[in-house]
Recover the amino acids of this structure.
């Protein structure tokens, strides 16, 4: 994904999630304390297997050197790990194809339970937990989608400092 597209996707995600932050959070089942073995808030200095993909003022995005490009049996295109002030706080998973969408939907619903779906005509789903928000979508026209995991304490800190 190109830099401007990643920034736009992140901005849209933050705007959508900001609506849900105002709503009282209810924990969803199996709320993750990190992603693929990296705990939320982990300092970048503790990780050795990351390659810098994009860097901004206080935010950097990395890919892992030997990351498996699968979640369950669904193929994924890229996983970006986001750090704010060197602390792990967000993950962007990008995938293509309706078959991968249906596999990921089953996996995520089984793992986290039934999400919020504000518009039943759109494939956009939200889980809002006590500390983690997850956004999952699929664009039928582009035949691609994303999964965002966001650690709310650092996300809120970042939003306040902008």
């Amino acid at each position: 994904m190109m830099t401007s597209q990643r920034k736009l996707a992140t901005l849209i995600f933050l705007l959508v999630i900001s609506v849900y932050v105002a709503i009282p959070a209810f924990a969803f089942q199996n709320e993750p304390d990190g992603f693929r073995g990296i705990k939320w808030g982990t300092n970048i200095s503790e990780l050795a297997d990351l390659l810098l993909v994009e860097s901004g003022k206080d935010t950097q995005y990395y890919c892992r050197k030997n990351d498996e490009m699968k979640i369950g049996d669904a193929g994924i295109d890229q996983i970006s790990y986001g750090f704010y002030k060197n602390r792990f706080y967000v993950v962007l998973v990008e995938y293509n194809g309706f078959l991968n969408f249906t596999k990921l939907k089953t996996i995520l619903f089984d793992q986290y339970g039934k999400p919020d779906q504000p518009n039943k005509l759109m494939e956009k789903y939200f889980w809002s937990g006590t500390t983690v928000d997850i956004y999952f979508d699929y664009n039928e026209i582009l035949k691609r989608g994303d999964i965002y995991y966001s650690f709310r304490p650092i996300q809120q800190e970042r939003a306040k400092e902008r």
Remarks:
- The CA atoms of residues 119 and 125 lie 9 Å apart.
- Residues 3-161 form a domain with the Protein Transport Mog1p; Chain A fold (CATH 3.40.1000).
